[in-house]
Amino acid sequence: MTTKQQEREALEKIRNIVADLGQDSYIGSAFEGCFEIAEENIDNDFACSMKQRAEKAERDVQHFQDMANFSSNRLEKALREIGRLKKQLEAEQEWRDYEMKENVQQCDYEKLVKQSDTRYLTDEEAKVILYNWYGFAKEKIIIHKFVSTYQINRHRQIRNTGMVDRRPAYNATDWNYIRFDCGGMSYELYNDTLSFFIY
């Protein structure tokens, strides 16, 4: 049986032979990394090979791929279950459209704007009406063209669901609509009646 010293000497000879072939030699390429493994084997009484390391690396890659697939499948299953529970919760909560009864209802606004002789007002036209009819300072008026929509559930919880069109509209002196803010207060003008807009 050879000693460690004999193995080191043999390794050095092999290393020199390969080195003499040049950096671009085929054998040198094949031995890349092998000398380091051989040194570790001698120093630590191992019997490892480049082939063993490559096979282990391949097994590790396959293991991680299997774990990734397993996790992906579990995630997809969890997402499906979350979706199912959301639908179940949605049905249980009984959400329905909700409008503050103090404000102009969307159906009333739509009835106004659908009339053939109703027209939308520019911001400036709306401000002139508010100034002439109620004395609001035009430079302080902010015209709103949209209002938020809401839903309410059986537990009286409210959620915002989007926005709807509420552009200033005019048909006659007693059939009109303007949603605006002025001086930190929120208002609606509807059919020549001015009222606070409630959030």
Describe the structure.
With 199 residues, the chain is α+β, with helices and mostly antiparallel strands. Strands 2, 3, 6, 7, 8 and 9 form a six-stranded antiparallel beta sheet that branches. Strands 1-4-5 form a three-stranded antiparallel beta sheet, with no helix packed on it. It contains six helices and nine strands. The protein starts with a helix and ends with a strand. The protein is elongated. Helix 1 (4-20) runs antiparallel to helix 3. Strand 8 and strand 9 form a beta hairpin. 49% of the residues lie in helices and 23% in strands.
Give a brief outline of the structure.
This protein has 199 residues and is an alpha+beta fold.
Provide key terms for this protein:
199 residues; alpha+beta; three-stranded antiparallel β-sheet; 6 helices; 9 strands; 49% helix; 23% strand
**Mean of the pLDDT scores?**
91
Envelope shape = elongated
Distance between the termini: 93 Å
Helicity, as a percent range: 40-55%
Tell me what portion of residues adopts beta-strand conformation.
Answer: 15-25%
The string of secondary-structure elements, in order, is HHHHEHEHEEEEEEE
Q: Which regions contain 5 or more consecutive residues with pLDDT less than 50?
A: none
Q: Tell me the number of helical segments per DSSP (H or I, 4 or more residues long).
A: 6
| Protein structure class | alpha+beta
Number of strands: 9
| Radius of gyration based on Cα positions | 40 Å
How would a textbook summarize the main sheet? 6 strands, antiparallel
